[in-house]
């Protein structure tokens, strides 16, 4: 069960990216992230702070809790 929240977050970020019709590279550029960081985030390999989660959600234009819901 460890890391399930990270994986859920990653799936939600990927879904939002696909909804926007953007590649990882384009979304990373839009968010001010490196492409490899975004890839790791989508794979559930990054452990975000709450501050980072809030900033990411704001940049995506969604509620932070929506990124944590499966």
Account of the 3D structure:
The protein has 70 residues and is an all-alpha fold. The protein has one domain: Orthogonal Bundle (434 Repressor (Amino-terminal Domain)). The chain is 70% helix and 0% strand. The longest helix has 17 residues, at 4-20. The model has no long low-confidence stretch (mean pLDDT 93).
Strand content: under 5%
Major sheet: none
Distance between the termini: 14 Å
Oligomer: single chain
Rounded radius of gyration (Å) = 11 Å
CATH class: Mainly Alpha
The dominant shape is globular
Structural class: mainly alpha
Helix content: over 70%
- Flag low-confidence runs: none
pLDDT averaged over residues? 93
For CATH, the homologous superfamily is named as lambda repressor-like DNA-binding domains
Number of helices: 5
Q: Output the helix-strand order.
A: HHHHH
Would you identify the CATH architecture? Orthogonal Bundle
Total strand segments: 0
Count of the domains = 1
The name of the CATH topology is 434 Repressor (Amino-terminal Domain)
How would you describe this structure in keywords?
about 70 residues; mainly alpha; 434 Repressor (Amino-terminal Domain); 5 helices
Ordered list of secondary-structure elements with their pairings:
Blueprint: H1 4-20, H2 24-31, H3 35-42, H4 50-60, H5 64-68
Helix pairs in contact: 2-3
Offer a concise description of the structure:
It contains 5 helices and no strands. It has helices spanning 4-20, 24-31, 35-42, 50-60, 64-68.
């Amino acid at each position: 069960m460890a890391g399930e929240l990270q994986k859920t977050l990653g799936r939600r970020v990927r879904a939002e990216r696909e909804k926007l019709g953007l590649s990882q590279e384009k979304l990373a550029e839009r968010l001010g992230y490196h492409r490899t960081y975004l890839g790791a985030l989508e794979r559930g390999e990054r452990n975000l702070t709450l501050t980072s989660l809030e900033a990411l959600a704001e940049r995506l234009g969604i509620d932070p809790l929506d990124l944590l819901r499966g």
